[in-house]
Amino acid sequence: MSCHHLIRIKQTLNNGVSKRKERENSMSDESGQIQCVCGRLIKEPSEYKVVYIKKENREIDILCPNDTCYLRELGFIQFTLEDEKPKILKATFYSPFVTWNTARLGKERATELLRVHLQQLIRRNVDWNKIVEETKKQIERERVAAAASSSSPTPDLEVG
Ligand SMILES: [Zn+2]
Hints:
- By secondary structure, the protein is of the alpha+beta class.
- The chain is 51% helix and 21% strand.
- The strands form 2 sheets. It has a 4-stranded antiparallel sheet.
């Protein structure tokens, strides 16, 4: 038997072991579940917290359900209003969260699950009526602020 042969046999054995490990992992409770870096499993998109603080950016934050999470912000949904209807510009998860799940579940599975989570968040878990109302108020505030700054007194004109 040549050296090459031995190496090939070793590789085959190793492959067998790692495949068995993968199968064991996928049979555990955490299989196929998205997880935050802090350890919190997120089985349903409804578990995320969605908060609308960055109104000037029309940006909705997606937060970890775990209040003591050190990462907190997992992603965001950015939109604009068109005829008072929300139009999604961008919806994404941040890379630490994505990388963590890619490492656990594999790129394909993680990408697919995270895509579904984003879709469901947008469709079911964001209170768009409330968001639109708050955004309209924000737009009004921005309009007033812009008007105030452009109508600041110009002393030159008042002279004479
Ligand atoms: Zn977390």
